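Feature request, filed as a ticket because there's no other form

It would be nice if the structure record came with a short human-readable summary line next to the C-alpha cells. Right now we just get the raw output. Example of a typical job, pasted below so the devs can see what we mean:
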Amino acid sequence: MRRVALAVVGALTLLAASLHAASASEPVRAVGAIGMTVASVERSVAFYADVLGFEKVSDAEVAGDDWERLLRVPGLRLRVVRMRLGDEHIELMEYRTPRGRAIPPDSRSQDRWFQHIAIIVSDMDRAYARLRRAGVQHVSPEPQRLPDWNPAAGGIRAFYFKDPDGHVLELLWFPPGTGDVKWRRADALFLGIDHTAIVVADTARSLACYRDALGLVVTGTSENWGPEQERLNNVPGAHLRITTLRAQAGPGIELLEYLTPGDGRPIPADARANDLAHWHTSLQTGDALALSRALRGASCCLMVSADIVAPHRRELGFTRAFLGRDPDRHVFQVIEE
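Raw output as currently delivered:
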C-alpha cells in the first residue's frame, strides 16, 4: 500500500510539474473579451450602447463545420457583435439557429451558472439614475456601500441589475485612492470592465484550474458578509469568499464561493453555448495547441471543443481556438491571435 501511495504521489507531482512548465512557457497572456449569448443582438446592442456607453466595433456572422466543432452546437448560424468600453470588450452572440433555452427564471446569485461583468463608474449616483430612467430590472434594491470593517472592500459602492435577457451586471465605484489608477478618470460616466465574476463550489479546486493550469495570478482575497452584502446579492445570509485572479493584461476573473448559504445549484450537464445562460471568458495565449495539450492532462479542466479549431477566415479575429470548462462547468475560450 505504501508503494502504491508513493507512486500516486509521484504521478501527481509529475503532473503538477508538467502543468507548471506548460503554463510557465505558454501562459495565458491576457483576459480578452467576455462573451454572452443573447436572444436578439439588435436589442442587446441598443441596451449596452444607449444605457451603458459601449461602442460597437465589429459585427460578423459565422457558420459551418469549424464553428460547430469549436462551440459543439450542430447546425449553428451565429452572429457575433463585439463592443468596447474603455479598454475592455464584450461579445454579444445571437444564435440564429438553433435557438437555445432562456435563463431559468428562478436563478439566484449563489447558483453556479451565475456570472457577471463589473462595470466601473465615475459617479454611482448619476449611473444609477440613468439605469432607473432606462427601467432596468434590479437585483440589489439600490447601490450598497460596503462596510469600512472590510479592509479589501470598505467604501466601495456596488449595484447588481440585469440586461434585457436576464444576465446579471454590476456597477462598481471605487472611493478616492483605491482601485486601479485607470478608474480615477472623470471624463466619462462608464469607464470599463474591472472583472468578470463566477460562482464556484470550492475555491481551491478552481485555483487548480485558473492559477495552476492556466497560469493566472492571485491578486486579491476577501471575505464579505453582513446586511450590505445580502442586499447587494439579494441572498439572505450571504457570506462569500472572494478571490481575484489576473493575467498580464485585461479584466480580472473573480471567484465567488458562497460559504453560506450552501444551496447553489450546479450548471446543468446539458448546458450548451446557445443557451442564454451561457457566458465565456476569452483567454489569449501564444500557443493554443501547447495549452490544450497541458489541459488535457489536467483533471481540473474539461475540454468542450472536439479539437483545436483554425477557421479558414479570421471572422472573429483569431487564428486558432478551443473551448474548455472549469471544475464548475464555466466556459473559457482560449484564443491564439
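Something like this underneath would help us a lot:
Residues 115-260 form a domain with the 2,3-Dihydroxybiphenyl 1,2-Dioxygenase; domain 1 fold (CATH 3.10.180.10).
The radius of gyration is 20 Å.
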